[in-house]
Amino acid sequence: MTSRTAIAEAVRERWYDVLDVGRQPRIVRACLRFAVCWGGLSAGGVTFAAMVSLTAGLTVLVSLARAFLGDRPELMHLFIENVNSVVPGIIDDGTNGGLIPAYLLIRHPGLSLTTLISGIIVFAAAATMMTGLRRTVRQMFGLGGAPLRFVRGKALDMVGFLALSVTILVSSSLVSGVTFLSERVLDWLGLGQTLTGALLGVGAVLLAGVLDAVLVALIFRFTALVRVPWKDLRQGMILGALGLGVLRLGGTSLIGLSDNPLLASAAAIGTILVWMNLAVRWLLFVAAWTANPPAAHVPVHPDTVHADETPNYVTLSAPHTLDWPHHQVTGALIPAPDPRFHRNTNGNGTGKGTGQGTGTPPAESSTSAGRDSED
Questions:
Q1: What is the pLDDT of residues 148-163, one digit of tens each?
Q2: Helix crossing, 39-69 with 267-291: angle to 10°?
Q3: CA–CA dist 127, 52 (Å, integer)
Q4: Fewer CB atoms inside 10 Å of the end CB: C or N, the chain?
Q5: Where is there biased composition of kind Polar residues (predicted)?
Q6: What is the C-alpha to C-alpha distance for residues 60 and 52, in angstroms, rounded to an integer?
């Protein structure tokens, strides 16, 4: 028994050495933040909300495009191609067997009560996705316990949806316009067809990468209201653009899932779900990386969170639990100091003094908690 206990203790100590808070590199801290804040589960929720509101968002996008490009069928076709490059196979252009026929997304002109009500429903459904995206991104930055006021949050969701829609519309138009002009210029210069195609491909990828980087910055700064230092934001923009670019270029591979007999008639929906889930997961991981979080004191020892007591959470039904260190907004327990994580600190801000387990709640007072409500 003694030898078994010694082996278990040695394994435990080795695990703590691996996760020593004084030696956690940024990639480990980002992964732990993503895991502890349920990044994968949150991505699934945002993906589901996005699927529910996808038709609403596309209706707005296609209607805006028709308003500006309706008299230019070739530009409208290019727009649909670019939307399909962002979300592979979502719009049926008559040749790709997409999920939604384009004509179903075009709203008829004229104002009526039905049009007004349907328009409100469209925006409300689309804002649902923005709400989930905003909350999960803020969670990755450690702001889940600092909710925005309800009205302000919903207003941000609506504005954020419109801004993202316009951004996608403008980016699609820019890619189409630059491609069109580049073809004419390269033909005028008399370059070979192979070289022309290569230059156009590289240019389109670079332009799409820049627009993806801007999109990531807009989501962090204006949708989630996170004030990120430029040094960290720059890294997040680059990582976000790289990941989203790889997903876009790999969209054709994901479309290959449509031939999988296991998916049958739901192949298109399954393909889009996989693509969107991967995109949201990457965005949330990029948010965790951009946050550059302090070291996580994991695993949490049961004794530091009253795990063996009843109740083992803060509740008015047991007044003595109100004296336990807890978050003033969420009510989440704050682990007591654990000396296991105070070893081998190297002064890089990831050791003792990171704020974890100090017994002092974050800087939310009871007054501010009363003013704010979860949106």
A1: 888 888 888 888 777 7
A2: 110
A3: 11
A4: N
A5: 363-375
A6: 14
